[in-house]
Design a protein that fits this description.
This protein is an alpha+beta fold. The chain contains ten helices and twelve strands. The model has no long low-confidence stretch (mean pLDDT 92).
Amino acid sequence: MKIIHQSALDKSRWDQLVADNSARIFSCSWYLDACAQDWYVLVDADFQNGIALPFTEKLGIRVLYPPVFMRELDFIGTDMHFQREAQQLIRDSFPAGQFQTTQPWNISPFTERIYQQISGPYKLNQQAIRMVRKAGKSALEIRKTNDWPAIYAIICAELSDKISEFNPANLRRLQALLQQLEAHGQLHSYGIFNGQELTGGLLFMQQADRLTYLKGAAMPASRDAGGMYLGMEQAIQYAQSQELHFDFGGSSVPGVRRFNLNMGGTDKTYFSYNWDRTPWWFKLTKSVYRRFKK
């Protein structure tokens, strides 16, 4: 096995490995290109087993990290010996890392994190039912649309000042990701319309057996009228009609998790593994940076 930088990687061969194993969309080369600052893959000689390794470089030290809009990355392939050997090689090759995966690793410390999903029958709770009915009685209508740039513009306007994740660099990554999803025919856009006016929307990505919520937002009047609830309900119904898992994208943030559970989601677990063997001067510099950043 060897670690290959993305610039030297046969990406068509890597993407074939992803496709052959029905791996999550996060491992596709074009998804990594859009979201990660930089990335490697660790792969065997025959491209039968591998894992993507997003990294950032700070003060000359390469650190694994979870890119924005990329919840987890898993080992691809079934060779458990490869996976055990790879876990050690990854730790040896990167002095520090935070790596998120649905698969258990033999690494400590780690934390359990959650996302929400619907597989099979679901039930809205009373809060969600009230909001869907409220939206249904209003002038709002949910329609599929190809005008994702207009929805993206609303997301930028409504969320950039409210959520730290939506800084200019990450918004550029989101735009690049949406362009790639559209190019690969895997983008689903639901607009929240008041008459002919687009007042919000929800963006999803579809791969294999899964419809995953990416991002969405609505103008205040449409949000208060239940537009996001109505849009999410319509997307869930589409997923049900296609026998797809509905993936909320997930969150441990209490308010977001509560919304997802209200809509019928159930918690699913993934793991965040962390290690830090960086030199003392690196830790000190990072600590000082964080202090001044506040």
